[in-house]
TrEMBL record:
GO molecular function: tRNA methyltransferase activity
Name this polypeptide is given: tRNA wybutosine-synthesizing protein 4
GO BP terms: tRNA methylation; wybutosine biosynthetic process
Family listed: Belongs to the methyltransferase superfamily. LCMT family.
Reaction catalysis annotation: 7-[(3S)-(3-amino-3-methoxycarbonyl)propyl]wyosine(37) in tRNA(Phe) + S-adenosyl-L-methionine + CO2 = wybutosine(37) in tRNA(Phe) + S-adenosyl-L-homocysteine + 2 H(+); 7-[(3S)-3-amino-3-carboxypropyl]wyosine(37) in tRNA(Phe) + S-adenosyl-L-methionine = 7-[(3S)-(3-amino-3-methoxycarbonyl)propyl]wyosine(37) in tRNA(Phe) + S-adenosyl-L-homocysteine
The protein's annotated pathway: tRNA modification; wybutosine-tRNA(Phe) biosynthesis
Entry-linked SUPFAM superfamilies: Galactose oxidase, central domain (SSF50965), S-adenosyl-L-methionine-dependent methyltransferases (SSF53335)
The protein's enzyme class: transferase
PANTHER family: TRNA WYBUTOSINE-SYNTHESIZING PROTEIN 4 (PTHR46529)
Superkingdom field: Eukaryota
One Pfam family of this chain: LCM
Classification via InterPro entries: Gal_Oxase/kelch_b-propeller (IPR011043), Kelch-typ_b-propeller (IPR015915), Ppm1/Ppm2/Tcmp (IPR007213), SAM-dependent_MTases_sf (IPR029063)
Amino acid sequence: FHRGYYIRARAVDHCVQDFLLKTQSHPRTQILSLGAGFDSLYFRLKDMGLLHHTVVYEVDFPNVACQKATLIKRTRELSALVGDTGEEGLGVIAFSGEDYKLLGVDLSELSELERALEEAGLDNEIPILFIAEVVLTYMENSRSDALIQWAAERFSRACFLLYEQMHPEDPFGRVMQQHFGQLNSALRSLAQYPDCEAQQRRFFEKGWTECSVMDMNEFFTCSTPEDEQQRVQALEPFDEFEEWHLKCSHYFVLAASKGMEPSWTPLLSDLTDPHHDGAVRMAGSIPAAVCAKHSEMPGLRRYGHRSVLIKPNVILTTGGFGEEDGQHCRMRNFHVLIKHAGYWKAGCVKKENPDKRWDERLYHTVSCLSKSLALVVGGRTSPSSAGLGMLWLKFPESCNAPDPGDITVEPVSLQPAAEAAALRWRHSATEVTFRGEKYLFLYGGRSAVEPVLGDWYFLHTQELSCTVIPVEGPVPESRHSHSACSWKGGVLIAGGLGAAEQPLGSVFFLRNLEHGFQWQTVDTHPPLIPRYSHTAHVHDGKLLLVGGVWLRSSAVPGVTVVDLMTGLCLDYTINEHLEWPLMLHNHSSVFLPNEKELLLIGGGGNCFSFGTHLNPEPVSLSLSNILTSH
């Protein structure tokens, strides 16, 4: 929430101050804020001494304007800044100061608006900046279009600043639309103007000669100074990167102008990433289906959890944040999915010793090391707390029970010497082989001290102690929320979020050699679109990357197949004929090679102020077509 509202205010301030700077040689300028509500922009600009020759006009419904006028009069500091001229109450003018006019008018009634502005002293010939901050989208398109066209036709030197939502049809967009629908405030412009390109065309068609637009990820990256980015990133403990990037990819800022000399261009992008917001070429689609005969299981509505195949057809899911006993919390119970007679069945696992407390962790790893043991490494409770250590999970060697409730799992605490290596989350733990011995390769992640880690440890699976093994080659840049898969005795690392909170598109192979390991870069073509919070599997020389978050707002990640022999990289969309949006970040996935079936478990999260969406049921993807076609 803090970052989401910060970036909105930052974008508006950036464009407004750029307008004031570019027009400071003019004797008079104007700002007209449409649907201003209780915005404090005028008072901030006035307090900063930026309104030397600018009059600010604000328009909103009469009852809103009246309430705001009363508030200004009652607040000594605000009254002192504005300098009351006593003209309020005359017609539609709710409040009038020397350089501030507050008008009560319905924006959709253009003739009334024009009459009110004329009465308040607005001048058609001097430079003007229109501000519409999440306003036009609530109006009928014909009326908002008419307003945009009127502004271009009526004013000889004009600028327009627009900030609102986009991308209504992807999973996050559907949750967003549903939220506003429930509030009885439908976002009307989204169907006709669903993206940046459509909004840009709209302004050109309505008479504006220059128009630039960017989503808020691009604005934060390109139009926010680096030191300011770092200041914001360090303000408070933060671990909601997926939600932040998704929110920013569903809002845009647009700056249009006409008749301005020099031209007004506050949104200049220096993004050199060829992937950013270009169209994603999809090689095909993969059908998604809810697991057959699976009754909805609240215990699997979660994110930040881990799922692991502990035996053939038995998947154990632990940790994460989700829904338990009718409320959202860090998950205490373990859950299993069991395939019996061709169908998946879900259930809660019995704890062998109910008094032994599970640490309710998120973003940990679970590695199955034998027929009866899995090792949990790291994870966190709060992002301001230290990472958690290691834990054994014991379960019976034989498990033929068709009923999930018959399976028992016992958490066993341990305090080995390798504890320091485990105090991290959003990391990876992958089995590798060196000189006939098995190790877990712990890599990357983050901790309460380091926002991103690039170190690694070889954890001996028998002794649970860290072993020094030589590693040569170019060291990958630090990352968390990446994927890691065992392959040929080594490990494949793909994507992740880097030091500047930017998704990475690199793929590395930690190759097993006689004397140690060697980092090698895996070249992909076309280059892999940078992403993080995805899952990954290797099958028959192909690396499968599933879901995740990228900064391409034109599409959401589906399944990407990388041929490890040729480097060919193909993206597939997931064709979800489901009754609910499938959010594929912070999920877990299990690949069943014999069936060429991919099970997606959980996923989702907080969708800004629109509510929390957790995928309600496990979903099955059949990959047989795309794996045989390669």
